[in-house]
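Q: Fold this one first, please.
A: Sequence and structure below.
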Amino acid sequence: MEGLKIRKLVEEHNPEKPALIVVSDQGIIQQVNFQTVLNVTDEILPFISQNITSSNNCIGLLMDKNILLPSIIICLQDLSQSFSFLTPQTLAESCNRLGIKWLLVLDSKPSSNVFTFTQKLRLSIADELQLWEFKGVPEQIKCYENVLCTMQTSGSTGESKAVRIPFDCIEKNVTGLKYVAARTEFNF
């Protein structure tokens, strides 16, 4: 995949520094350093590559806020796969419209009966990643080459639309933010 490589940006940081911190009003709930993000990515990579053999797919992510998301996104980028966040309420419709054949699930099984459980992977940080396959044939098979993700929006019409976000649209922003952050007092 051309352009931005998230893995490279993560590798440039001190591996022991916090990469992700989950907090509540009670304080820090969970913290993961840059090395752990890359280690979990390397755990997930063979799991996905052995089960999803074609590239340039859009993989559905059915998961709420989770500390594993950066690892999953890096892995999908390494494998030339795009992703779209999905909700249980519109799962089958979204998969059909977006041409999503595969679903990664962290929390629980999909409530829709249009998916078949394929595999699960127990991760070293105690979460279980599940892979589900769409039973039907999507309305259209779409190519997601050089697309980071697809976001769903209703825009101003109230009618659901999908917007593909290519890497080159965000690459300059991410690179620019990296240099701005390097000049600030807070050292990432």
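Q: Good. Now the second chain.
A: Here it is, same layout.
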Amino acid sequence: MPYANRIAGGRLPGEAPLAPYPGEVHSLHGVGWRRAWRVIERESHYAVLGLQHRADQDWPFDLDATLTIVLGDASLKQTLCVTNTGTRAMPLGMGFHPFFPAAPGQGTTLGANWSGRWGVTPDHLPVGLAPQAVVPGPVDVGPWQVNNCHTGWDGRAVLAYPQHTLVMTADPLCRFLQCYRPAADSAFVAIEPVTHVPNAHQLRAAGVADTGLIDLAPGAVRSISMTMQVLRHVDG
């Protein structure tokens, strides 16, 4: 928040260049993950965090954000809400970036439905959207190496482990699923519900349709939610 993944070279159309993420040539993931949030409210099973951002070299628009976290007996729900507190429309993107254990030989599989898949350049930018039929069955995450954005996601992903299954569901605004596992021997996988394709700002400026960017008017509000439910296997 206020965008997911990368903007190539930090070049936000119509604005001064954004500061690149340290060690990167691109700007990365916006400001939400790099700023201190304040605790607005908290109880034993939930918390509400808040962030006020004012235009700077990392993001040239004013916004307020809240993140609500609710714990159940075997579930976690997060709701991210962004308000445009500035005087001009803001190109908004949002997403979640959960990491999950996925070591080789662990027996982890991913089940998810999508309709297309963006290729990726060596510097992690999307290129060449290709139609992709619904995945015929769970993907074995063990040998998977991936950093791709999947389009037409139906909002549900299932990670199955030998002892339990994790079911992720996300808001309909999250029509894109970014999957990230940097190497075949990585011990984790990131399954990321997001509202737009990486580098959406430049892609839209180049005439690419359906990038998922939201033009948020002054005073307007958008929110997304993600729920994760753990189902423990019962030995039969």
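Q: Anything worth noting on the second one?
A: The chain has one domain: 6-232.
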